[in-house]
Amino acid sequence: MLHLRVIAPGELRDDVMGLLRANAGVTHIVVHPDAAVDPTGDEITADIARECADDIVRGLKALGVKESGAMTLEVLDTVLSTRAWHAEDAAAGQPADAVIWDELVSRTREESTLTFTFVMFLCIACLIAAIGVVTDSPVTVVGAMVVGPEFGPLAGLAVALVQRRSHLAQRAALALLVGFPVAMAVTIAFTLIFEALGWVTLQTTRELNEVDFIFQVGPFSFVIALLAGAAGMLSLVSSKSAALVGVFISVTTVPAAGFAVVAATIGDWHVAAQSTLQLAVNLTGITIAGVLVLWVYRLRRTR
């Protein structure tokens, strides 16, 4: 279940209470009249089934609570209450299938922002990938996949396209268009340093036997990107974050960027181009899959 906290002006008290009481998935309603100081008003709390959360949030927004007060939602790990059990049972649908669109937008907006931390994670992941390439180590490449933060902006872009939120789309696109070039430039600099120190003896990518799959673009490259993108979006929608690890290690986004850098430094431009294409295919496939998954959820809700 979720814990809902509403701050609303006193004149909206009856409307908010009516909205909450009318929904069978709501219980444990508590009202603290005039308890809020900034903004002034009442504090109203309730425990709600996840299945009905989106309807309640949209109803509160229609009442003007977003502009005149505030709404917060918190996940409740443990609720010991017969009334809560009945509320969950009365709510239509299943918790894992419920999409709270405002929660999804809020989460992806935070993860899609171009920040110093995001760029640092991407640089570190790209460097690990490059080291995995020059050492022909698939284990190191997998480590780069896990560290890479690129799924956040891709998910944000998918949500923005479905919800038609241009600002979120611009934010996500900026993170990708700035983050990857910066990470690849930093990786180029460090790779050249490693080569100057004699740590890298790779002369051609033909010497690689374990990680050459990274730049080999084929029909399954796009299929895997679609499947990974769908799994990633499902994990976000259902709040099952464990599946994201599998998404990270199933597509070669960051490794492709690292491979392109290494191939370019040794003058293997054909392979560098193939790796860049692999990167583009994966980014595109993940975004398309995310859009399709969200579109299906939206269509299902409409019906």
TrEMBL record:
Membrane-traversing stretches: 114-135, 141-162, 174-193, 213-237, 244-267, 279-297
Source organism superkingdom: Bacteria
InterPro entries: DUF389 (IPR005240)
UniProt-listed Pfam families: DUF389 (PF04087)
Keywords noted in UniProt: Membrane, Transmembrane, Transmembrane helix
Name of protein: Putative membrane protein
Species in which this protein is naturally found: Mycolicibacterium rhodesiae (strain NBB3) (Mycobacterium rhodesiae)
